[in-house]
Amino acid sequence: MISLLWLIPVLPLTGFLLLAFFGGRLSRWQIASVGCGSVGTAAVTTAIVAADFFRTFPDQESYHQTLWNWIDTSGMTVGISWYLDALSLLMVAVITGVGFLIHVYSAEYMAHDDGYARFFAYMNLFVSAMLTLVLADNLLLLYLGWEGVGLCSYLLIGFWYREPEYGTAAQKAFIVTRIGDTAFAIGLFILFTQFASLSIQQVQSRAVEAWPVGSNLAMIVAVLFLIGAVGKSAQLPLQVWLPDAMAGPTPVSALIHAATMVTAGVYLIARMHHLFALAPMVQEVIAVLGLVTLLLAASSAVVQTDIKRVLAYSTMSQIGYMFLALGVGAWSAALFHFLTHSCFKALLFLAAGSVIHSLHHEQDIFKMGGLRRHLPWTFWTFLIGAAAMSGVPLITSGFYSKDWILWSVWSSPISHRWIWFGALFGAMLTGLYSFRLIFRVFFGEVRTQPAGEPGLAMRGPLVVLAFLALTVGFLEMPHTLGNVTVFSDYLSHALPTTELLPGIDESSEAREQLAVTVAALLGIGLAALLFLPGSLFTSRWADQSTDHPSMTLLQGGWGFDRLYDRLFVRPWFTLTRYPHDMLDRGYEWLAVCGKSCHGWMSYTQTGHVRWYAATIAVGTLMLLGLFAM
Amino acid sequence: MEILFYIAAAVSFLATVRVITHVHPVHALLYLVVALIALALIFYLLGAQFAAALEIIIYGGAIMVLFIFVVMLLGPLAVEQERTWMTPHAWVGPSILALVLLGEVGYLIAAGDHTGSVIAETRQKGISIALYGPYIIGVELASMLLLPGLIGAYHLGRRLSREGRGC
Amino acid sequence: MLSTPALVLAIMLFALGLIGLLSRRNILYMLLSLEIMLNAAALAFIAGGARWGQVDGEIMFLFILTLAAAEVSVALGIVLQLSHRFRTLDADAFCELRG
Question: Is A314 within the bounds of a domain?
Fold first, then answer.
């Protein structure tokens, strides 16, 4: 049954093709069934494949399936071939499972949109591309999925293409990630020229043999791959596209943030971990990048007024945690946070979508309030999501994953203490911005009258995701609490286990956990203090003045947009405008030259057959003369 | 043998010169037929009997007949020339050259040198084997060339007849 | 052997054909000249085949024959069309493709 693996990416692709070619002729009900059905069957197939995979799992760590040879020239063989191991199975399960829930949710959310078939077609293609990415056996196929994901994000962010600014946001996402893609492609070329292979396993085993730790080539390739990952995962300095990507419909944001796209970078680094292990300095860079991003994004999230932008910055921040974990060599912790994050972030986005839906597409949190009683389902699920994100201890999954990351940072030999403090501060900020949303949106007086709870198709996924956001964390519990290691045992077959500093014991772990708990609760308490209506400081912060320079700086995501605008966009536009005449003169000259040459040559076309025959004869004579010489 | 070759060469050369210098199409065609027959004789002398036969049958026969047909079909253009074409002296030149060739062939038959026909048998076999062996692609290409030739000729002729009916 | 004089004859015939092709304006004569040139080429192949005792020369002759048959059938159809349309056989009159 494991041979059904190829069906997993093919099913959503089939859905895409069906919807793309026949979408116009199908009814809405049929479109929704095809769109959700294809991803749903992919999820079921994943379950079947996983069941078969686990029957022989620890003995047989990976499964390899080649469908056909894609490119086969001398010295280069690239197959359409899939590679399933613990890591890719985890990714596939999340992508199909969470993706399916998001599809079901969108069936209702998008019900009144004109581009219903187009929407589901893009969504299916998105899922298919992401599955190709994670299942690819070689780097070229991975790159195909990588680019497919980029294309679909462009299509979906600009889904409402009649609004010019949405189109701009889509282009921004595409162009910014393109910078990363280019670096990734160059890294791929270097690997190919060095090892004459593109297979991920082969390349890495050969790299480990050929390159000593810290060698130049390993560093260069690792840096190029890191730039690629940074572009896709919206980390510093290529993070600017993510907040603008909120232009797309809310389920798209959920898909981009939870199941596909932004986690591609995390996957890439985890997949190429042998390579990154050869470049310890790059790993440190990853950790620092993750830390800086998570702090920047968290601080920006605290002051955003658009509900979706808050969530966008929070994603950046949480992915920052994953990068931090990858950087300190806590591979499993990063993937665990990916798992919990995809559950609670999908939940948060879908719940936010439900809020937006019932408020007639109002996204400003200052115009919301008091929705607790009107939207109880949404409120409770949103609360669970926010609690999981801020890491409310013991009961939420976010606590276990974040605690694991922070513990790894604390105890890792390649980390520093100040990184841990930064991450701890980030955890505090997470609590602050998550509960700021809760208190703003669901408490206080009603500012916009809601239309009522959404229907079953939207509530169902919310409940399932809320359940997952609470329980997924129990797959891995620290030594001090239960000592469950299901997840790390499982992933230890695909990723190296985390190294710990010598002399670390349980008491320091307990102390560290206490610090994390306190930080999260402190953030929540601070949020209650500042934003809960009726509390001490609320009146002073109620009409948050946004004209203060530090506020605008934070709201603009630390001014990276303006910086890039000044640094790249405007100079480029000036450059293209300034030598307009000179360059154009050159091309015009070329055109004039071609035209006059054509004029002269056309005199030889006399229309007289005998003239042609004569020219042929003369040409033959000249050729013969050439041979004679 | 060599003298036969030189006579045939002279005949074909003279006939060809007359082809390109003559003003009447039918005369030119007659000279061309003579030139082709002379060439066929040269092919025979070079040991290519099969080619010689084909030269006479297909070139001298089929293709030249096509030309004659077309000259006749061009009637309206040529009608005033009709009378001048049919003068007796038009036949003199070709006839003389043809008689020379006839004499040569007669000499060849009378000389009784038939060794060539024995060689021809094995040669013929070799041609067939080569044609359907290494040259099979060439045969395919030739058939692909003939088919458009057929269709093209049909198409061009059909258009003419329709316009001829005044449509 | 006769191959060398045969090649010389082939060259002479080819030159005659070329002269005819270039000097005659009547399109019918141009076609005849083309036939002469094709025959000259065929003679060269036959002579080459005779020189080396190979059958390839004759095979090339067969191909030339095929080519000539296809060419003549189409060309004569065109001649008929042209004479029908333009009421002349002057090749220089058909110059509508002038650049």
Answer: yes
Contact A441, A366 (CB under 8 A): no
- Shortest alpha-carbon distance between residue C7 and chain B (Å): 11
Put simply, whether C10 touches A (Cβ < 8 Å) is no
Outline where DSSP puts E strands in chain B. none
Nearest to A608 among C18, C21, C92 (CB): C92
Domain range spanning residue A604? 584-628
A603: which chain C residues are within 8 Å (Cβ-Cβ)?
A: 99
pLDDT (mean) for A378-383: 87
Contact check, Cβ <8 Å, B46/C3: yes
Cβ density class A342-380: b for 16+ within 10 Å, e for less: bbbbbbbbbbbbbbbbbbeebbebeebbbbbebbebbbb
- Predicted pLDDT at A186: 92
**pLDDT tens digits along B116-133:** 555 666 778 888 888 888
Does residue A257 form part of some domain?
no
Count of A-C CB contacts under 8 Å: 35
pLDDT for the residue numbered B164: 46
The pLDDT tens digits for A555-585 are: 777 778 788 888 888 888 887 777 666 777 8
**pLDDT tier at B114, thresholds 50, 70, 90:** low
Q: Does any domain span residue B114?
A: no
Phi then psi for A138, rounded to 5 degrees?
A: -125, 165
What is each CA distance from A119 to A147, A241, A529, A566, in whole angstroms?
19, 21, 42, 35
**B111 inside domain:** no
DSSP run (H or E) holding A78: strand A76-84
A613 interfacial to chain C (CB closer than 8 Å): yes
